[in-house]
């Protein structure tokens, strides 16, 4: 599943690799890769594979969950499909409280003593996921863990998860993506080296 999904992400342009003309992330980082997993929403067969991949992660690592929560906005649709498959309640966590109405940070009904699985479409530093976990914990939920479609595997994310005692599992990751990109001739060995160097120091690369 790891390599199959990585190949799909490259094929549909959800992941773009361009070491020669780097992208600029919202954080200001220069990056030879850009990942937009929202592109998968247009492909029903790929969506189903993602749902099955997330379901497999739940079965293998996070048994006994009682609710599924999506991180706004990218995690919401995939959380919805997973919750539907498992017959579980769905929630989602906003990045900040609404400025109107009830001012909710968490949308949906969070039952007492809920064991919640959080769904992210992409994990880079893990900051947004950790913020969502804290919101759920503050509301009284037990967050069993996080599943994602793709993870960069940054040291910062690993430290974030360890510091906040969160378990993370992803369907596919950066190393698998690069392996598939070389196999399918999307990148050459010189470009591979650039992409590998970037992952080691993403905040300093290209500065």
Q: Explain this structure to me?
A:
This protein has helices at 2-11, 44-61, 76-86, 127-138, 155-163, 174-183, 189-200, and strands at 15-17, 23-24, 30-31, 33-35, 67-71, 90-93, 106-107, 115-123, 142-151, 168-173. It is built from seven helices and ten strands. 40% of the residues lie in helices and 22% in strands. The strands form three sheets. A six-stranded mixed sheet has the order 7-6-5-8-9-10. It has a two-stranded antiparallel sheet with strand order 1-4. A two-stranded antiparallel sheet has the order 2-3. It has a single domain (2-200), classed as 3-Layer(aba) Sandwich (Rossmann fold). By secondary structure, it is of the alpha/beta class. The radius of gyration is 17 Å and the shape is globular.
Strands, helices and their partners?
Layout: H1 2-11, E1 15-17, E2 23-24, E3 30-31, E4 33-35, H2 44-61, E5 67-71, H3 76-86, E6 90-93, E7 106-107, E8 115-123, H4 127-138, E9 142-151, H5 155-163, E10 168-173, H6 174-183, H7 189-200
Parallel strand pairs: 5-6, 5-8, 8-9, 9-10
Antiparallel strand pairs: 1-4, 2-3, 6-7
């Amino acid at each position: 599943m790891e390599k199959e999904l990585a190949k799909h992400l490259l094929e549909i342009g959800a992941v773009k690799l361009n070491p020669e003309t780097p992208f600029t992330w919202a954080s200001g980082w220069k990056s030879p890769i850009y990942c937009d997993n929202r592109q998968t929403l247009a492909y029903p067969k790929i969506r189903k594979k993602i749902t099955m991949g997330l379901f497999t992660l739940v079965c293998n690592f996070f048994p006994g969950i009682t609710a599924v929560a999506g991180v706004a906005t990218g995690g919401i649709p995939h959380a919805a499909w997973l919750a539907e498959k498992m017959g579980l309640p769905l929630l989602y966590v906003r990045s900040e409280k609404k400025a109107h109405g009830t001012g909710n940070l968490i949308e949906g009904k969070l039952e007492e003593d809920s064991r919640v699985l959080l769904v992210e479409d992409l994990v880079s530093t893990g900051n947004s996921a950790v913020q969502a976990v804290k919101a759920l914990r503050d509301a009284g939920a037990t967050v069993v863990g996080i599943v994602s479609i793709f993870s960069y595997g940054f040291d910062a994310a690993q430290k974030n998860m360890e510091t906040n005692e969160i378990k993370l599992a992803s369907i596919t990751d950066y190393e698998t993506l690069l392996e598939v990109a070389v196999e399918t001739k999307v990148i050459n060995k010189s470009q591979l080296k650039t992409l590998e160097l970037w992952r080691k120091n993403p905040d300093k690369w290209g500065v």
